[in-house]
Structures are given as structure tokens and as C-alpha cells.
Design goal:
It contains 19 helices and 13 strands. The chain is α+β, with helices and mostly antiparallel strands. It holds the Pfam family ACP_syn_III_C.
Length: 517
């Protein structure tokens, strides 16, 4: 036996190494095969039409001039048919022009940057928390969450939370809302030159602070907007409400011609800080920070030249019919009667399910045919042959150049990076926004887009995917198309720090702090 196996082992050892490609070369070959397949499918129609066009041109070259003359005479004698056909074409073109969706342009947007004195250091955060009466166990839990959150020590909390003791009054909550919303709107109107009186639609979203008069009424009063403005105030819809607000504004712009719509997305921290000891309700204290954004949309054709983006798609997914999904982000009182927002342990699994449903709808709208064919083929094999085939995950990198993933926390970004098979470069804007500004709720996707603009990465023709998750449970997507090489807006929140980014993070820490740990 040993004598029989020795030669074969020796032969295997003597096999030339070049017969087997290294793993990295195999992956490179697979990549180029896939790119070749994608190119072939994308241009398949063109490749099929080229021979047909060649045949038509050859036949046209052989046509006798007498035949063309006879055709002209035939049309002259059938004038009624020609007129009817022309009328049908004109009618069809008119119906198409009148019923097609009007393009919606994003003229510009502005993100609020709080003053430096509102920044909160980790040491200050923990000292204030201790003085607020949290238990030792709750303090230690907050410290661990904070240090591994991916947030820097430059994020902002409202003025009321810097006071000792904290002052979560209605007056302070109003002051926070006014400072954030008016700060963003002042920058927006200044950058665009649009007069507040020209705004026909106003949509404001803030989940946890809904006073009377409403936030939208506060804006109408501040800027003296016109009396017939269509104003809306969205509350309780979580971190994905910014995309919902964009969708509502788009619908309004389909109905009302030649006007502007302003969308304001923010969250209020002052009255929503949790002062109890339940761990599931302490996480928002560590992640949520002050921020807000104002967006100017237009359906005016004249604004296309100066607009940054056009809105292509909005896809909304609501999983509220499922009890687990409905309860996974829930505002309630703990056993001591202290109000806060509780986050379920099932949150990431529910977010993954909502994402799957959302991209199932979004995929056919944005993915190239090559990816749709691969996805469909995998589905057919699995259904018809009951084969144990791994579900094919479409390559959304072929559909988008940029990804604005809601900066809800490290876990959210990690999960989407893994599930969508993205590279660190694709989630850089999300991680850096979380690091610099924290979780600013529904406005975080605009800080991310501002980051890409500040880096000079958005070029004409690029496609941007904004995706956000929110209570209910919801997963919403917005797709934008860059109309030009986009420069950062004046007073960008990244103006004074973009040169320091990206920073390298290890387990949520900048590399120099990770080494100390």
C-alpha cells in the first residue's frame, strides 16, 4: 500500500505550481468575467441592432429613385390616412406630455452646524450623567456604549443638557428647534437666493417633539410665508421620516405647478433625554445628537440649470403590520415613570427584513438587466428544482456610485456594508458622519451627502442612494441623479474639518485611541 501511494504523492508534490492560480488571481479573473457579462448584457440591444441597421442601409442604397417617387405619389393620393396618422401622433404626444410625472429638482440643501460650546466630551458626558443620579450599572453601560459607538468627542447636545441640573423644559425644547431649523433655513435661502414668499410647499418632520403651534407653523411665522402655502408637519415617524417628507413634497410638486418646496428634517433632544436606568432605553442618550437639514426642491424647468440633483425614485417599506417590527423602537415609560425610547434586541434582524423588502422593490427600478437576470435565474433554480442555492445578492455598486446609509449607529452601518457587499469606501460618508456629528436622526443622510460634496466626489451623471430606517418599522429609499459636477454648498458643516477626514476607526475608536485601549 505504501509503495503504491508514495509515487502519487511525489507526483503531486512535483506538479508545477503554475497549473493552479493563486486565490487572488482567481478572484480577479471572476471579477473581469462578471464585468464582461455585465457589459455584454447592457449593450446587447445595441449589438443586435448594428447588423440590422447595416442591412437597412444596404437595402436603402439599392433602392431605385423611381420607387421613392412612386411612394411619394401614393402618399399624396392617401392624404386622409396621412392626416389621421398625424393627428393620432400629435394626440398621443400631447397626452404623454400632460400626464408624465414632472421632474423634481434638488436646487440645494443646508445642514445645521451647532456652535462649538455645545460639543460634549466623553468625560463631561459621564460626569453629568453621574450627577443626574444614574445607577453605577447604568453609568458603566453608557460608558461602554459611548466608547464603542463610533462617535467622536466633537458631537453636540443642546444647551439644556449642558446645564446642571439639566433643564428639559418646553421653552428650551422650542429654543432648540428654532435654533436648528432657522439656522439651516437661513443658510439655504442665502445660498439659493430664493425668497421665502416664493415657497409654495413646506414639509417638516420631527419625530419626538410636536408642540402647538406646530414646527411648520413656527417656520411660517418666522419667515412670513404666504397665506396659501401647503404646510405639513410629520411626527412620530422616526429616523426615516426625511425620505417620507421628500416623497410628500414630490407628490405636492406633481400637483402644484411652477413652485418651490422646502423640506426640513430634524429631531429634538431637549425633552427626550432618558433619566432612568433601563439599559434598552439608555442607548439613544449615547447616540442621538443635535442636527437638522433644510432642502429646496423645485418643479420649475428654469431651475434645472442650477439644480444639483434630480429625484428619480422613492421606495417606502412599512413593516408595521408585524407586532415585533411595530414594537422594536417604542417610546414608553419605565417602571419608575420615566419616559424614553426603548430599542429591542430584535432591531437589527427586523431592519434586515425591511431592507430585503425595500430592495426587492427598488432593484428592478435601478439595477442593470444583467443583475436582474442573475437574480431571476437564481430564484427560478431554487423554486423549480428545490436546490440549496444561496440567494443571489444583486450588486448595487453597478446601480449607484454613492451610498448615504442612515448613521444610526455602528451596527446599522456594519450590517448594510455586509448585506449589500459594499466596500469601506462606500460607507465612509456614513461612518464619518456618525463620528463627527453622531446620529442626527432623519437629517443624517444629508450630512453624508454634504461630506461627499466636500470631498469633491459627486460628478455629473452619478447616482446616489439614500436609505434610512425608522420606527414603525420602516425602511425608505430615495434615488438621486447628479445633474452636474457638484461643489459643496456655502457654509457646509464640513468646511472646517473635511481635511481631517476620513479618520481610521478600530472598534469604534480612532486608531490612536484604539492603541491606548
Amino acid at each position: 500500500m505504501n509503495g503504491g501511494t508514495a509515487p502519487s504523492a511525489a507526483a503531486a508534490a512535483a506538479t508545477p505550481p503554475h497549473r493552479r492560480l493563486p486565490d487572488f488571481l482567481q478572484s480577479v479573473n471572476l471579477k473581469y468575467v462578471k464585468l464582461g457579462y455585465h457589459y455584454l448584457i447592457t449593450h446587447l440591444l445595441t449589438l443586435m441592432l448594428l447588423p440590422l441597421m447595416a442591412v437597412i442601409l444596404l437595402e436603402a442604397g439599392r433602392t431605385d429613385p423611381d420607387d421613392l417617387r412612386q411612394l411619394w405619389l401614393h402618399l399624396q393620393y392617401n392624404l386622409v390616412s396621412v392626416l389621421v396618422l398625424s393627428a393620432v401622433l400629435v394626440f398621443g404626444a400631447t397626452v404623454y406630455v400632460l400626464t408624465r410625472p414632472r421632474p423634481v429638482y434638488l436646487v440645494d440643501f443646508a445642514c445645521y452646524k451647532p456652535p462649538a460650546h455645545l460639543q460634549v466630551r466623553f468625560e463631561e458626558f459621564m460626569r453629568h450623567s453621574k450627577l443626574c443620579g444614574f445607577s453605577e450599572d447604568a453609568l458603566e453601560f453608557q460608558r461602554k456604549i459611548l466608547e464603542r459607538s463610533g462617535l467622536s468627542e466633537e458631537t453636540y447636545v443642546p444647551e439644556a443638557m449642558h446645564a446642571l441640573p439639566p433643564q428639559p423644559t418646553m421653552a428650551n425644547a422650542r429654543a432648540e428647534a428654532e435654533t436648528v431649523m432657522f439656522g439651516a433655513l437661513d443658510n439655504l435661502f442665502k445660498a439659493t437666493g430664493v425668497k421665502p414668499k416664493d415657497v409654495g410647499v413646506l414639509v417638516v418632520n420631527c419625530s419626538l417633539f410636536n408642540p402647538t403651534p406646530s414646527l411648520s407653523a413656527m417656520i411660517v411665522n418666522k419667515y412670513k410665508l404666504r397665506g396659501n402655502i401647503r404646510s405639513f408637519n410629520l411626527g412620530g415617524m422616526g429616523c426615516s421620516a426625511g425620505v417620507i417628507a421628500i416623497d410628500l413634497a414630490r407628490d405636492m410638486l406633481q400637483v402644484h405647478r411652477n413652485t418651490y418646496a422646502v423640506v426640513v428634517s430634524t429631531e429634538n433632544i431637549t425633552q427626550n433625554w432618558y433619566f432612568g436606568n433601563r439599559k434598552s432605553m439608555l442607548i439613544p442618550n449615547c447616540l442621538f445628537r443635535v442636527g437638522g437639514a433644510a432642502v429646496l426642491l423645485s418643479n420649475r424647468g428654469a431651475d434645472r440649470r442650477r439644480a444639483k440633483y434630480s429625484l428619480k425614485h422613492v421606495v417606502r417599506t412599512h413593516k408595521g403590520a408585524d407586532d415585533k417590527a411595530f414594537n422594536c423602537v417604542y417610546q414608553e415609560q419605565d417602571g419608575e415613570g420615566k419616559t424614553g425610547v426603548s430599542l429591542s434586541k430584535d432591531l437589527m434582524a427586523i431592519a434586515g427584513g425591511a431592507l430585503k423588502t425595500n430592495i426587492t422593490t427598488l432593484g428592478p427600478l435601478v439595477l442593470p438587466v444583467s443583475e436582474q437576470l442573475l437574480f431571476f435565474a437564481t430564484l427560478v433554480v431554487k423554486k423549480l428544482f428545490n436546490a440549496k442555492v444561496k440567494p443571489y445578492i444583486p450588486d448595487f455598486k453597478l446601480a449607484f456610485e454613492h451610498f448615504c446609509i442612515h448613521a444610526g449607529g455602528r451596527a446599522v452601518i456594519d450590517e448594510l456594508e455586509k448585506n449589500l457587499q459594499l466596500s469601506p469606501a462606500h460607507v465612509e460618508a456614513s461612518r464619518m458622519t456618525l463620528h463627527r456629528f453622531g446620529n442626527t436622526s432623519s437629517s443624517s443622510i444629508w450630512y453624508e451627502l454634504a461630506y461627499m460634496e466636500a470631498k469633491g466626489r459627486v460628478r455629473r451623471g452619478h447616482r446616489i442612494w439614500q436609505i434610512a430606517f425608522g420606527s414603525g418599522f420602516k425602511c425608505n429609499s430615495a434615488v438621486w441623479h447628479a445633474l452636474r459636477n457638484v461643489k459643496p454648498s456655502p457654509n457646509s458643516p464640513w468646511d472646517d474639518c473635511i481635511d481631517r477626514y476620513p479618520v481610521e476607526l478600530v472598534d469604534g475608536f480612532p486608531t490612536h485611541k484604539a492603541a491606548q485601549q
